[in-house]
Specification:
mainly alpha; 8 helices
């Protein structure tokens, strides 16, 4: 009887471990070598800043990783796939692509963190008034961009999953 339970649990674990079918992505690699080089340079720079953002508070990781993915999708299929399969940055990008944006809760969290970092920087670190005003204004611009220009995703994961059967997505 115990062997049957063990076998049933093994079967259940094996069924749970079946990987979900990955979506095929058709990339539009730039034909012009100069543009492709610019996209590659921009993607590398934004990736470096995203990696730096992991350890530097206030430097946004996900938007920079998304920018890297977009730029790599235009310049190098190999780098694009490497980024999507990266264990740290890949899930963030895939989640954004799957949901087609950031949830309202996520946006509120981003804005709260931005506000905290901008206030900390401008009032505790910076003593020069013009620089303080610049930091506060840029923080306001960032908050407006996050709230109004970053696409708002659905909170319902089931609605997101219905679109996964498509064969082609845009990066």
């Amino acid at each position: 009887m115990d062997n049957n339970r063990k076998n049933d649990s093994r079967v259940a674990l094996q069924e749970a471990a079946i990987p979900v079918r990955e979506r095929k992505v058709k990339l539009e690699i730039e034909k012009n070598r100069v543009r492709r080089g610019l996209y590659l340079t921009g993607g590398t720079l934004s990736l470096a800043l995203a990696i730096l953002g992991i350890v530097v508070p206030g430097l946004p990781v996900t938007p920079l990783a998304l920018l890297s993915a977009f730029l790599f999708a235009k310049s190098s299929e190999r780098l694009y796939n490497w980024l999507l399969n990266n264990r740290i940055l890949g899930p963030r990008i895939k989640n954004y692509q799957r949901r087609k944006g950031v949830t309202r809760k996520g946006k509120l969290g981003i804005i709260a963190f931005m506000t905290l970092m901008v206030l900390f920087s401008s009032f505790l670190v910076i003593s020069v008034i013009p620089i303080r005003i610049l930091i506060l204004s840029m923080g306001m611009v960032g908050m407006v961009v996050v709230w109004f220009f970053v696409p708002t995703a659905t909170d319902d994961p089931e609605r997101c999953d219905k679109g996964e059967d498509r064969e082609e997505i845009s990066p």
